[in-house]
Amino acid sequence: MQNPYQQPDQQPDRQPDRQPDRPGGPAARISRRRLAAGICALTAMAVAAAATGVALGVRENRHRSAAAAAAAAADPTKPLVAGWKTVINPEHGTAFDVPPGWEVLEPQVFSGYEDTKDREKVLIGHTAPAFYKSRWCSVDANGDGQVSDVRLGNVGTKGAGGAKDPADIAVKEAPTWVYAAYTQPDKSVVTADKPVAYTTKSGVRGSYVRARSSGAKRTDRCAGDGQAVVFGFKNSRGDLVSWDFYGRTGVPGAVDDALIMRILSTVRLAGDPKDPGPGP
Questions:
Q1: For every one of its 280 residues, what pLDDT tens digit does the chain have, with 9 covering 90 and above?
Q2: In which domain, by residue range, is 31 found?
Q3: How far is residue 266 from each of residues 73, 176, 278, measured CA to CA in Å?
Q4: Does residue 193 sit in the same domain as residue 97?
Q5: Domain count of the chain?
Q6: Is residue 199 part of a domain?
Q7: Could you tell me the pTM of the whole model?
Q8: What is the DSSP letter of 251?
């Protein structure tokens, strides 16, 4: 049976990651009194000039500092959270930040999930991912001798061709991530909230949806429930794209909601997209 969450119009163009989952003085002849007066006058002028110069210097420095701050804020390659890492996806013209302990992969890396009943069918995936505890749990799920590493958390961005609007992206993709990563082939244990309008720190507007599972079968020691948060928005070209987080729940060290939302708050645009965009 076809996966009810599958989105046929959003097939990736790469094979999925098979892991489940830069000044002069006065004249010489001058009376002593005039000399003193002249010195006083020159001193006063010098003090006034110095004071003016300092004031101008302060204003100029403040101006330069403000300009530098503005330039830094407009540079998507610099993290909005001090000490964090920036993840850039040039294909979609997006960026976001993750904590220093996360592993940032190359932009061209595709991370996704295939249908457990049809290994040639990719259910969902994204590029330029960042992993949290990429070897949190390892298991030979199929008993074929091939050990797979299960991550505790994963975040990335993807295109959303075929979606109607940012909310539509989030509604479709959030439960798909949970189903693909944690509950296949059971969709009955997946639930999702209604879309919520949201604006990031940099002013990117869109909507997000949170989905989760409850009662996923423990088919192996790494299996269990998980959640996903998907934020749909538009890039600089007006294409619909999404930022996606998914991770395990109910286990020690799981990424909490506050951190997920803090990462989401850093989502921003990063130049012109490199991909060809949606077709006609």
A1: 434 444 433 433 333 443 345 343 333 322 333 333 343 333 333 333 333 333 333 333 433 333 333 333 488 889 999 999 999 999 999 999 999 999 999 999 999 999 988 888 999 999 999 999 999 999 887 778 888 889 999 999 999 888 999 999 999 999 999 999 999 999 999 999 999 999 999 999 999 999 999 999 988 899 999 999 999 999 999 999 999 999 999 999 999 999 999 999 999 999 999 877 664 3
A2: 24-74
A3: 12, 23, 25
A4: yes
A5: 2
A6: yes
A7: 0.74
A8: S
